[in-house]
Recover the amino acids of this structure.
């Protein structure tokens, strides 16, 4: 508004309020309805009427007929002055203010004092409907927040709750509902709120989705098993030794005189490099093993077709291992094969270790393990448990240190060394698994506290195109090669070996590094999700078994608190224990509650 049109006692509009000019100049002085006085720039005010307006208290509602004026001018543009005259018969500060209030309201009018647009009836109807809907939404939101504060929700709240759910899954930052309630906008707080109102229960495990991992089952088409020559090894007794609930058996053992055959599911026969299933497996990196179920990296049909022992005769990629007098790998033959597999559990084999062929298999395993120990292998044997969920009930069982498990483990390590040697001998690009030695001479600690201390010093294993020492395993050469149904790295190894055996080009080292690097970027999230999920379900177990009692082993001291391992749960907690007992002392503890969203279990001695 040009400064020349502004004069003392004019009616102006400033920051959504009427005002009266009390003094003009380069800056103008204005009086507001609350009697406050301000000095403002002329361009910051809107002139509504030149006055004179002795006092803002004179702005009383005039008598007139605005509605008739709206009807007469619907859809047209006029001025503030003309509309005031039409509606009230005169243009005064009072009538100007009455009209301008409607302009600011926006239902019937909008624009500027020089160009007031009168809305049509249809426009007014739509705006009124929009306002009513907005008011209803605001009331719904207010009611929704009230229910949250009361610790409940109703079905119609589902839409509003999706933002809370997304934060609980760590799929967004911030949450309007938590902000309105004055609560921290964190995934843990969102999780706690969903539990409080009963929208989630304790059986919801948020961690795979928090880490961005797929929980759906892949469903890519798989080509038929190719017609090719396979060694018939069905005359050999092939033993697949696993946990009782194992559903993806991918390795089995046979003895053929002095030769050990390690048969592995021939996944690369159905999943070649670059196929849709291969790309999906690379993106997933590995099977995701959760107490509530397994999320496979490959379509289930691959396991159905290749799982060893799931059919009368199974296709395999078989590794024939020959040994020298000291139990070292003297040679390896790798062949596609047919095998007839018998499935056994670890406890079943444990009970038969003095029988053939189990005794011989155990002797080979012990000899190989002794070689690894002489080469500096690290031995840590802290308690382990298996956690699973059946119809909402959490079950935890200890995993005893069975010799049958050692037998299978050593056979898989032998195969890893044999494949590494074979790859070097035939110049097949593979990625070797290495691990730097820890900064300690201790290799076989006896006390639990020493085992924990050593475990903390272990470096993370790495994949490299150059062979090197795996200090933890005590192996100078090692390639992961025996779980292609479960780990993408193993599948890549099988793809390379199969291409070599067929006389086809193998992938070069940069291509291998790129493939495995993509999977390696995901594998840490997979392992983290498994670890956090196991902790989640252990806390659910404690919630389902209030007052749980058990033994704890003191492993470490942190200030005035003791780090206590609960072997029956494979769970660590911190407790204040009077008297500061020495490490490796055993104490009895009782559960006093859990905080599921924060993954905290509370105990007392």
């Amino acid at each position: 508004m040009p400064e020349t049109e502004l004069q003392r006692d004019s009616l102006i509009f400033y920051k959504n309020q009427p005002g009266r000019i009390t003094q003009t100049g380069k800056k103008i002085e204005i009086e507001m309805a609350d009697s406050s006085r301000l000095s403002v720039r002329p361009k910051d005010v809107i002139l509504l009427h030149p006055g004179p307006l002795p006092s803002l208290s004179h702005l009383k509602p005039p008598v007139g007929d605005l509605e008739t004026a709206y009807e007469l001018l619907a859809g047209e543009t006029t001025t503030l002055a003309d509309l005031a005259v039409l509606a009230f018969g005169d243009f005064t500060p009072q009538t100007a203010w009455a009209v301008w209030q409607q302009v600011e309201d926006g239902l019937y009018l909008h624009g500027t004092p020089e160009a007031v647009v009168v809305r049509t009836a249809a426009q007014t109807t739509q705006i009124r409907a929009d306002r009513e809907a907005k008011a209803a939404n605001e009331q719904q939101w207010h009611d929704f927040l009230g229910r949250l504060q009361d610790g409940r929700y109703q079905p119609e709240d589902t839409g509003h709750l999706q933002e809370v759910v997304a934060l609980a899954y760590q799929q967004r930052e911030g949450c309007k509902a938590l902000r309105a309630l004055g609560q921290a906008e964190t995934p843990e707080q969102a999780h706690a709120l969903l539990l409080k109102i009963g929208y989630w229960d304790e059986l919801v495990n948020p961690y795979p989705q928090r880490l961005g991992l797929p929980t759906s089952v892949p469903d890519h088409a798989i080509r038929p098993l190719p017609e090719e020559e396979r060694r018939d090894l069905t005359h050999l007794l092939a033993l697949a030794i696993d946990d009782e609930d194992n559903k993806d058996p991918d390795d089995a053992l046979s003895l053929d005189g002095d030769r050990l055959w390690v048969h592995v599911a021939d996944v690369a026969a159905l999943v070649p490099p670059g196929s849709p299933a291969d790309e999906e497996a690379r993106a997933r990196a590995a099977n995701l093993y959760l107490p509530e179920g397994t999320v496979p990296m490959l379509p289930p049909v691959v396991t159905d077709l290749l799982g060893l022992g799931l059919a009368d005769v199974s296709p395999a990629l078989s590794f024939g291992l020959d040994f020298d007098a000291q139990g070292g790998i003297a040679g390896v033959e790798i062949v596609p094969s047919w095998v007839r597999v018998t499935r056994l559990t670890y406890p079943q084999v444990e009970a038969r270790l003095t029988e053939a062929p189990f005794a011989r298999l155990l002797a080979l395993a012990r000899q190989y393990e002794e070689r690894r120990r002489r080469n500096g292998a690290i031995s840590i044997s802290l308690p382990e448990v298996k956690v699973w969920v059946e119809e909402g009930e959490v079950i935890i069982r200890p995993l005893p240190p069975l010799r049958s498990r050692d037998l299978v483990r050593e056979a898989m390590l032998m195969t890893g060394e044999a494949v590494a040697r074979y790859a070097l001998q035939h110049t097949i690009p593979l990625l070797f698994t290495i691990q730097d030695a820890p900064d300690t001479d201790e290799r076989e600690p006896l006390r639990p506290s020493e085992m924990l201390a050593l475990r903390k010093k272990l470096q993370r294993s790495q994949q490299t195109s150059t062979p090197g020492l795996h200090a933890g395993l005590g192996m100078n050469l090692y390639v992961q090669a025996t779980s292609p149904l479960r780990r993408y790295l193993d599948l890549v190894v099988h793809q390379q070996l199969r291409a070599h055996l067929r006389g086809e080009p193998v992938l070069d080292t940069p291509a291998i590094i790129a493939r495995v690097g993509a999977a390696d970027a995901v594998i840490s999230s997979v392992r983290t999700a498994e670890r956090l999920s196991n902790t989640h379900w252990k806390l659910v177990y404690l919630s389902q078994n209030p007052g749980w009692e058990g033994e704890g082993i003191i492993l470490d001291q942190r200030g005035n608190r003791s780090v206590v391992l609960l072997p029956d749960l494979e769970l660590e907690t911190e407790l204040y224990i009077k008297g500061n007992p020495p490490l490796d002392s055993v104490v009895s503890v009782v559960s006093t509650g859990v905080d599921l969203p924060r993954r905290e279990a509370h105990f007392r001695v």
